[in-house]
Amino acid sequence: MSVESVGPGPGPGPEPGPLCPEHGQALSWFCCSERRPVCAACAGLGGRCRGHRIRRAEERAEELRNKIVDQCERLQIQSATITKYMADVLPGKNQRAVSMASAARELVIQRLGLVRSLCESEEQRLLEQVHDEEERAHQSILTQRAHWAEALQKLDAIRTSLVDMLTHLDDFQLIQKELEIFERTEEAEGILDPQESEKLNFDEKCTRSPLLTQLWATAVLGTLSGTEDVRIDERTVSPFLQLSDDRRTLTFNAKKSKACTDGPERFDHWPNALATTSFQAGLHAWVVNVQNSCAYKVGVALGQLPRKGSGNDSRLGYNAFSWVFSRYDQEFRFSHGGQHESLGLLRCPALLGVLLDLQAQELLFYEPASGTVLHTHHASFPGPLFPVFAVADQTISIVR
């Protein structure tokens, strides 16, 4: 509002308020430059606030009221978010940590049961790590609960204070409280919303032990415990492959076979094949003779793995549907989702063992002859898994 528009008399107001100590007139105006209430004489041409930006006091008070209302609404929403987080997320985190800790204990006990005479001390060490991790997760959750409870108390106190100002202060008192309102608002804005944190999750890595993995794999494959009679589904066999009568051996042929009838299950481009059965739970193992081939893939795949075309959707290891150990000449690697991890093997394995533990969500590749674990992969497998094979040189055979 321009200085010229300010009249000589006091501005209108809902009720009489404090008077200007210099002119004795009502403080009906607000000087935006000096940020204080003034009278009409102060704001006039001869007043101390001439040339300043002047507003009516009730307009400034209304602006502050609106700001308080907006802030209270934001505080209410933030409080509701934190309350929901404490009610819905933290109890679930705690329950999941307890559940995962229980599953981890079972996993440790199950595996060490196979080789208890050799690794009783390892069992104790791992169980202590699980206990420590469970305690850490539990303490993190308790800390979060205490932190957000305190944040809720602060927000409630700030909101109560602001609501009290809104309901009990007149215009002049409200303007005098502007700094306090700003400080309260700034304090509230400093309380951030809850964020997802890995510290609240149980870390399954605490149960991983190279010694345990090595001994467990040796026990399973060496004693035939958990092995499967895996056969190949002839309906899925690529026309570039020949399947033996016992449905255990695949032989690569560079020329596409004309004898294969096409069907929805058959791979029509890549030299792939799936097993007849899938695994949904439990422990499963099989061994493949790969000594005659310099180009092969062995692993597991979901049933929805596409079968048609030359794209990566049906190429093993290049999509989200397959997890494979592969060899090409002297290069070995593990592949999934188009991500390839090179494996520095010192020699070419003649036999390749595959161990699938769906309880632990673990896929392990193993050389039975040397007792060497070639690679382990942990993942949340989204569905039943089929043994899967590909060969682009000579032959590979399932031996058990």
TrEMBL record:
Ranges for domain B30.2/SPRY come to: 210-400
Going by the UniProt record, its keywords in alphabetical order are: Metal-binding, Zinc, Zinc-finger
- Give the gene name: BSPRY
Protein name in the entry: B box and SPRY domain-containing protein isoform X1
What Pfam families does the entry give?
PRY, SPRY, zf-B_box
CDD domains in the record: Bbox2_BSPRY, SPRY_BSPRY
Record has Zinc-finger as a keyword: yes
